Amino acid sequence: MRKAALPFLIAVSPLVVGGMSLFWGAYSVSPPQVARVILSRLFFFDAASAAELSIVWDIRLPRIILSALVGGALAAAGVTFQGIFRNPLVDPFILGLSAGAAFGCALSTALVPSLPVQVAAFAFSLAASFVTYSLAKSQGQVSRLPLVLSGVVVSAFFTAAQAGQHRLLADGQLLPRGLAFRLDLRIGVRRGLRSSASHALAPERSFHGR
C-alpha cells in the first residue's frame, strides 16, 4: 500500500506546492482571488484588480511554470545521463561536465564576448563528457571506478585551466572584480566536490587493495 501511494504523492506534491505558491508570498492573495484572476484571463472578463492581476498572472504564475519546466528538464537530463553511462552514480560535477561548462562560460565572458555564454558552456561540457568517457574506456570496459577517476582528472584539468585564465586576466586587470570573485567561488566549490568524490571512492579502493 505504501509503495503504491509513493508515486501518487510524488506526482501530486508539485501541483500542491505550485498551487500554494500562487497565494503565498510577500503580498497575500486569497484562493478565491487567485481563481478570479485566472478565470478573468482565460475567459476575458474583468473581475480582478490590477494589483492582483499583476502579482498572480504576471509574476507568480510564470515563475511556477518556469520552475516546473526547468525541474522536468533537469530530471530528464539526469535520467538520460544515467542511461547513457549505464551507471546510477554519474554526476555532472564528478564527471567534469560542470568544470568544462564553467570554463566555457568564463572563456566566453572574458575573452570571446561575441560567443553566447550558453553555447560555449554547452560545447565545453560536451567536450568534457567525451574526454571523460574516452579515458574511462581506454581499458576496453567502462566501470564505475575508471569513470569517476577520469571525471576527477578532467574536472581538475578544466578547473586549472579556468584558474590560469582567471589569474592572467586578473593580473592584467582585464577581469571585473565581481566576476573574479564568482570564478574564485566556483573553483573552490569544485575542489570540495572532488575531495568528496575521493572520499566516496575510498572504501572501493581499500577493497581492491585487499
Structure description:
This protein has 210 residues and is mainly alpha-helical. 79% of the residues lie in helices and 0% in strands. It has 7 helices and no strands. It has helices at 2-23, 31-43, 50-85, 97-110, 117-136, 144-171, 177-209. The chain is elongated, with a radius of gyration of 23 Å. The two termini are 43 Å apart. Mean pLDDT is 76; it is low at 177-181 and 184-210.
Helicity, in percent?
Answer: over 70%
Question: What's the tally of helices?
Answer: 7
Helix-strand topology string: HHHHHHH
Determine the mean pLDDT: 76
Low-confidence stretches: 177-181, 184-210
Main pleated sheet: none
Fraction in beta strands = under 5%
What's the gyration radius in Å? Answer: 23 Å
Q: How many strand segments?
A: 0
For this structure, the quaternary state is single chain
For the termini, the CA-CA separation is 43 Å
Name the shape in a single word.
Answer: elongated
Which structural class do the helices and strands define? mainly alpha
Architecture blueprint of SSEs:
Blueprint: H1 2-23, H2 31-43, H3 50-85, H4 97-110, H5 117-136, H6 144-171, H7 177-209
Helix pairs in contact: 1-3, 2-3, 4-5, 4-6, 5-6, 6-7
